[in-house]
Specification:
The protein is of the alpha/beta class and 310 residues long. It has 2 domains: 113 residues, 3-Layer(aba) Sandwich (Rossmann fold); 184 residues, 3-Layer(aba) Sandwich (Rossmann fold). It has 11 helices and 12 strands. The strands form 2 sheets. It has a 7-stranded parallel β-sheet, with helices on both faces. α4 packs across α7. The radius of gyration is 22 Å and the shape is elongated. The chain starts with a strand and ends with a helix.
Length: 310
């Protein structure tokens, strides 16, 4: 079979892709622009894409195409309806990154809660040495134990975050954005109550009509002083302009692994806030531990194998 992988660079150059060679001729591209996509896939039987968009026109002009493998859980970069009409299977990989995202959630939380940016600077700048004191506790931090941790989106990742937060001694509550995920073992609260009462809030819900701009000026003002907001869902769930203003207005903290667009735009207001120590941004890496990426590749291989065995 002719297999085309459109964006190997998004999977990491350290990932061994040789397991895909057993299925046929593999052609790899580090990145693929919208203008290049059709020419690269038009003769392929199988295409693998992480973020490259596959449109209706591309599908219709690729007569040999039989399978589209999405190297991710989300499937919004492929025209599913056009693929269905053309008799083309579309397969994603679910659940491969849960532990990686959970670990990153707590990495971000601990970094912000314990004021790591400030204390790292204090030591490396020589201020601690000059102080002649054995310690520096000029920026108080709190323990997670006994605090309230709110989770927006109690899916597989949210549930695992809840389990670990409970192990830290936190009191966990959650908010269902779908309005359907009730009856869990954790307390369900309204979004307003969560914003008012929680010390840490982490977002793990999908982006849809209900969650677009879910966090905005109207509820950011409800956050407790010193509280931490973490977004590991999708960028547009949080209004970034409103968040930038809130971070400079009050002592709240935010950790973002997702933004709109990605990579972050030069004129994103978050790049110019005064209180940069209140903000941690990582470049959409929560999903990307080496273990998670290996599981992702194994899922792609399994999807192709299952397709070929039909």
């Amino acid at each position: 079979m002719s297999i085309v992988l459109l964006d190997t660079k998004t999977l990491g150059e350290d990932l061994d892709l040789s397991s895909l060679n057993v299925f046929g001729t593999l052609t790899k591209y580090q990145t693929t622009s919208a203008d290049e996509t059709l020419n690269r896939i038009k003769n392929a039987q199988v295409i693998i894409t992480n973020k490259v968009v596959i449109t209706k026109e591309m599908i219709e002009k690729s007569p040999n195409l039989k399978l589209i493998c999405i190297a991710a859980t989300g499937m919004n970069n492929v025209d599913i309806d056009a693929a269905k009409i053309g008799g083309i299977e579309v397969k994603n990989v679910a659940g491969y990154s849960t532990q990686s995202v959970v670990q990153h959630t707590f990495s971000m939380a601990l970094y912000l809660v314990e004021k790591m940016a400030y204390y790292d600077t204090v030591v490396k700048s020589g201020k601690w040495t000059d102080s002649k004191l054995f310690t520096d506790i000029s920026r108080p931090f709190f323990e997670i134990s006994g605090k309230r941790w709110g989770i927006i989106g109690l899916g597989s990742i949210g549930k695992e975050v809840a389990r670990v937060a409970t192990a830290f001694g936190a009191k966990v509550c959650y908010h269902s954005t779908s309005g359907e995920n009730y009856g869990q073992k954790y307390l369900h609260v309204t979004l307003e109550e969560m914003m008012k009462s929680c010390d840490i809030i982490s977002i793990h819900c999908p982006l849809n009509d209900r969650t677009h701009n879910l966090i905005n000026a109207s509820n950011l003002e409800l956050l407790k002083e010193g509280s931490v907001l973490l977004n590991l869902g999708r960028g547009s769930i949080v209004n970034e302009s409103d968040l930038a203003k809130a971070l400079d207005k009050r002592e709240i903290y935010a950790g973002l692994d997702v933004l709109t667009p990605e990579p972050i735009a030069d004129n994103n207001p978050l790049m110019n806030i005064v209180n940069q120590d209140r903000l941690l941004i990582t470049p959409h890496i929560a999903w990307a531990s080496i273990e998670a990426r290996k599981k992702l590749l194994e899922g792609i291989v399994e999807n192709i194998k299952t397709f070929m065995e039909k």
